[in-house]
Design a protein that fits this description.
Blueprint lengths: L12 H15 L5 H16 L6 H16 L3 E5 L1 H6 L1 H11 L2 E4 L6 H13 L12 E2 L9 E2 L9 E5 L3 H9 L3 E5 L6 H5 L2 E3 L3 H18 L1 H9 L3 H14 L17 H4 L10
Parallel strand pairs: 1-2, 1-5, 5-6, 6-7
Antiparallel strand pairs: 3-4
Helix pairs in contact: 1-2, 3-9, 3-10, 3-11, 5-9
């Protein structure tokens, strides 16, 4: 069954479409096989969140949009899952905030980077970075530490969707402002980020784009207000509360509290994003 053959009235339509895109990404040499596992794990967190965008996640998307608009050199990092799930949406986001797009992979081959870059160009991208590999993220001993010198290395703001924690920490050590999209509020990635968006990628990316277009019209004052109004710790607490205390299908967001016991409290990463 192809994506177009999935009946839109199927109760799990959106889920089936995303699974198909990841499967097709593997078949086309865009997504790694590990990405299949990562997709399933993310889907489980989304299920616990009620497969909805929390108000705190929407506020994070608005703050992210404002941060990108005010940035001097924003870059949107793309891995295999992002390319498979939301290629057109990623290109639209980059255009809305005048950001570069750079392919950055843990399971890196030059051929896979080229395939992802071509896939993004097929969905409207004019330029895709990631093949020059003439820069670095200090402290990383794997392929994700190799970046473009005029891309991620030079960026002041980096969007790191579906991130793994070690690179998030390394980028933070470089002084980058990080916007992370991650469905697990206990992961190192959103806990390191300046702006954690705890939401499904396929909802979050278009949301940031929509906010960017509105805030571009509103001007710098409204953009700074959106950033000042956002509290990262509160957003993470509300996301965790939604998972721990919410009921399936709930339409309201729990008031939230501090990050609770166990590994999430002491800074460990109970279910971190895997390398894709």
């Amino acid at each position: 069954m192809t994506e177009t053959e999935i009946p839109e009235d199927h109760p799990r339509y959106a889920s089936l479409v995303t699974r198909h895109r990841i499967e097709a990404g593997v078949e086309n040499g865009i997504t790694s096989k590990q990405g299949l596992i990562a997709q399933g794990r993310g889907e489980s967190f989304d299920y616990l969140l009620g497969e909805r965008t929390l108000p705190s996640a929407d506020a994070a998307a608005r703050a992210a949009a404002a941060t990108l608009l005010l940035a001097d050199h924003p870059v949107v990092s793309v891995n295999g899952n992002v390319a498979a799930l939301a290629p057109e949406e990623t290109v639209e986001l980059a255009e809305a905030v005048d950001a570069d797009i750079e392919v950055n992979l843990f399971n890196h081959t030059d051929e896979r980077v080229r395939r992802i870059a071509d896939h993004l160009r097929d969905h409207g991208a004019e330029e895709v970075k990631g093949l020059a590999a003439d820069g670095e993220i200090p402290g990383l001993d794997h392929a994700r530490g190799t970046v473009d010198a005029d891309g991620i290395e030079a960026a002041d703001v980096v969007v790191v969707p579906l991130e793994d924690g070690d690179r998030a920490e390394a980028l933070d050590a470089m002084g980058k402002t990080e916007i992370v999209i991650d469905l697990n509020p206990g992961s190192r990635s959103p806990r390191t980020a300046d702006i954690p968006i705890v939401d499904n990628l396929i909802r979050a990316v278009p949301s940031v784009t929509a906010h960017a277009r509105a805030l571009a019209e509103a001007g710098p004052g409204a953009q700074r207000d959106a950033i000042d109004a956002f509290d990262a710790d509160d957003a993470l607490a509300k996301a965790e509360a939604a998972i721990r205390e919410g009921s399936f299908g709930a339409e309201t967001e729990p008031a939230g509290g501090g990050v609770s016991d166990g590994a999430a409290q002491n800074g460990e990463n109970p279910v971190d994003e895997s390398a894709r």
